Automatic annotation (TrEMBL):
One of its GO terms (molecular function) is tRNA-2-methylthio-N(6)-dimethylallyladenosine(37) synthase activity. [4Fe-4S] cluster 2 binds at C228, C232, C235. Its EC number is 2.8.4.3. It is found in: Cytoplasm. This is tRNA-2-methylthio-N(6)-dimethylallyladenosine synthase. The keyword Cytoplasm applies.
Amino acid sequence: MAKETKDYAKYFDFSDAKVISEDERGKKIRIRGRDIQILSEPDHRKEKQRGKEDIQVLYDTAVPEELKGIGNGKKYIIYTYGCQMNEHDTETMKGLLEEMGYTSTEERKEANIILLNTCAIRENAEDKVFGELGHLKGLKTENPDLLLGVCGCMSQEEGVVNRILQKHGFVDMIFGTHNIHRLPYLIQEALFSKEMVVEVWSKEGDIIENLPKKREGMRAWVNIMYGCDKFCTYCIVPFTRGKERSRRPEDVIAEVRELARKGFKEITLLGQNVNAYGKDFTDIDYTFANLMDDIRQIDIPRVRFTTSHPRDFDDALIEVLAKGGNLVEHIHLPVQSGNTEILKRMSRKYSREHYLELVGKIKKAIPHVVLTTDIIVGFPGETEEQFQDTLSLVREVGYDFAYTFIYSPREGTPAAVMEDDVPMEVKKERLQRLNEVVNEHCRMSNDLMEGKIVEVLVEGESKNNSDVLSGRTRSNKLVHFEGSKDLIGSFVQVEITDPMTWYIKGNIVATAVSSA
């Protein structure tokens, strides 16, 4: 039986809302006794448009002096859902909060502010957030001075914001992905007005540099660009993150150099589609390959990137990655489907043949490359024969890992109006078969590592055993081994003794000499 689709229309009924006032700052409305200050709200039509306006780069973005003491003696919690981009946004929000005087806590009852940084990619992520809001309602009742905020990608969706306004009136702040830098002002507004504050910019803003970040550990994320212009039919990201806009290379390189100076061992360059980096520059000819070649010469042991789109993965980038050094031999290359017709319906803008040709070029240039991918099963119209094409592509490429998903429609995407005609039981069965093929190759790849000595960056204790440490190889494989906790944050040489499907076990041979 097909899953019942959500009726978002009911969240657009504002017949009980009263407009209290309206001026150049926005409008104030009242719903069920709660005053709501709407500074700006999401507009799906505007989010879809790609304007010609020049993107400004702003550097003077410090927290104003008058807002730096607001959080003195107060504590915060941020719950993060979704991708590395969301994690990185959370680092920025933590940095802003701590400049305002707030300190972090893990105890909800101690918190003066709780933010949910949300993901809009899949429906179950949205369900988790609304479930969490239900739990937080009791906390808000006990402590009316607690500030509750919903931010991130879900906040860019009209239906989500309207659902919060109608059903979750105890929330104090709603803001989106384009105006995170406005967090100090939104907190000030919410605290002093005692009203819900909604500020979601539908049109992406400028590139904001020099925002504080609170990074932890020895690995760092570095955002090199924002937004996506690919408009895959199943994906909401081009609407929630806006058009592609690249940070200036000198700003990215300066940030990476600073991370190297601080002793970070690994960085991951982030973008919705890193391969499109630089294509929006009008004054310089500078691509992602150029950026990687420049960063390759910075003294930081490991450099990764995610995520890349096969359509923009060019020969120049392959040539740079083949130079190795601190550029690791792991590439995440989402394919989504192994069938050309389904790829066309997804608007991926490449064919099965093009993807396999690209994989062949990469493997020839980087013989020890480890490839991982994303795959969706049960896309509208997918036949058994088309699914078999996905299985055969997975076997041919030989991925070491794959993030596999059952297709679910996202409100506002082109695919949402396609007939979702693959029954759920068929989707689940295909997912199981796909995972069996992926796991089989993952295990085969790990088995080949038995007896080899690999460099591992020690990340911490194993979740299940405090006597066991865990870390990752250059190819991003998870390794467990016994060792003392003072090794956390360093490189060690580990001999692989016991390969498993999801991770590998080994014994320390020596502590590696860190180049950081």
